[in-house]
Design brief:
380 residues; 12 helices; alpha+beta; 4 domains
């Protein structure tokens, strides 16, 4: 199978879909300017995607060190020993005792998929596919990923990336807190993780590399918090040594810091009365009007996100889930499965459809249309 051309004429999503449908094995090479990516496909499924060895190893080492999964000294030693032995780096690390194989596999898989997702955002470039009986996976491999799964995620990212670019013009901008309070149920878990990593010195790229759930969701979390006014970004050159790094999220915020011996005692009492080390319970209570607005926003998030996730499960398993927790078991839904009032969603699945409802603020399921959030079925 000979396939080559430009990405302006034939989009990468269409190329992957064609290869996946025909269950082809081979190497898909993507290039633009001085950048090239090789995608290894086995029976129509992605088994590897990376740029040159130097680029991939540089990215891998930076993430492993930044997340403290390996020391910088150990990493440099591993690269030197790999050079002396002529062995590929990932098999070399897998055979050693310097890093947990599970941690290494997770980071490598993330790098492979994100390399492909970045290529899917290219607006120009060239492609060529060389069909082979067997691909060389000596550089490394990940559990095969179906092209339909990649395409679903790619569509989500391409749809939301323009808004991220508006709020985050450069990934090398420093992220700082604004001082505006953030409430636990106001943002998804990814944004909470991002918030705790903001220290006033790290860039958006550095924060994303420290997150375990992927760079896109990290950038989206930063952009959402920037849009909500909780964070703002600055060019690195504008950052001076005078500003104070953000306080660790488990400490008492500035408005509770003592100004006298009496206020020290008061702050201590506040902590003893139940705030503990929960970072977001230290924010002030929300007024009723804000609570109602937040509940409306939570409902809108479910309306927007859950159909996509349920359809993704349908592609994977050929049926809708029997219960919502099945989405978590597949790793498709990382958020809470409770409605804005803290009660479990009411999920009903028929043979070819589903219905998702909330019991509402009073805990009683009624007939008003606004309680029925989602209802969908397979086409006849």
């Amino acid at each position: 199978m000979a396939l080559e051309g430009t990405l302006q004429d034939f989009a990468l999503v269409d190329i992957l879909q064609l290869i996946g449908m025909q269950r082809k094995t081979g190497v898909l090479t993507l290039s633009r300017k001085d950048e090239a990516i090789n995608v290894m496909l086995q029976d129509g499924m992605v088994a590897w995607a990376a740029s040159t060895d130097d680029v991939f190893e540089g990215n891998l080492g930076r993430i492993l060190v930044r997340r403290e999964l390996i020391t910088r000294e150990r990493w440099e030693e591993a690269r030197q020993m790999r050079t002396r032995t002529g062995q590929r780096l990932i098999p070399f690390l897998q055979a050693g005792q310097w890093i947990s194989p599970k941690d290494l596999e997770r980071v490598v898989q993330r790098l492979v998929l994100e390399t492909l997702y970045r290529a899917l955002r290219w607006r120009d470039g060239k492609y060529s596919f060389n069909a082979q009986g067997q691909v060389d996976l000596s550089r490394g491999k990940v559990p095969p990923v179906g092209t339909e799964t990649i395409l679903l995620e790619a569509v989500r990212q391409m749809d939301e990336w323009p808004l991220i670019e508006q709020r985050l013009p450069s990934l090398d901008m420093v992220v700082r807190r604004s001082g505006r309070p953030v409430y636990r149920d106001q943002v998804p878990p990814e944004a909470l993780t991002v918030l705790q990593l903001v220290d006033g010195q790290r860039t958006a790229r550095e924060i994303a590399e420290m997150c375990d759930f992927g760079e896109f969701d990290a950038y989206k979390g930063i952009a959402d918090l920037v849009g909500g006014g909780a964070l703002h970004v600055e060019a690195r050159a504008a950052v001076t040594e005078e500003f104070e790094p953000a306080r660790p999220p488990w400490r008492v915020p500035s408005w509770l810091l003592p100004v006298s011996a009496g206020s020290v005692a008061l702050a201590s009492l506040v902590l003893q009365l139940g705030f503990g080390h929960d970072p977001l319970r230290l924010f002030p209570a929300r007024p009723p009007s804000a609570q109602a607005a937040l509940q409306t926003r939570s409902l809108n998030v479910v309306r927007r996100e859950l159909p996509r996730v349920l359809d993704q499960y349908l592609l994977l398993r050929r049926h809708y889930p029997n219960q919502l927790t099945d989405l978590q078991a597949e790793g498709l839904w990382l958020g809470d499965l409770r409605d804005p009032w803290g009660r479990p969603w009411i999920y009903e699945r028929a043979e070819t459809s589903y219905r998702l409802m909330s019991a509402g603020p009073d805990g009683r399921t009624g007939t008003p249309d606004d309680l029925t959030l989602l209802s969908s079925g397979l086409p006849e």
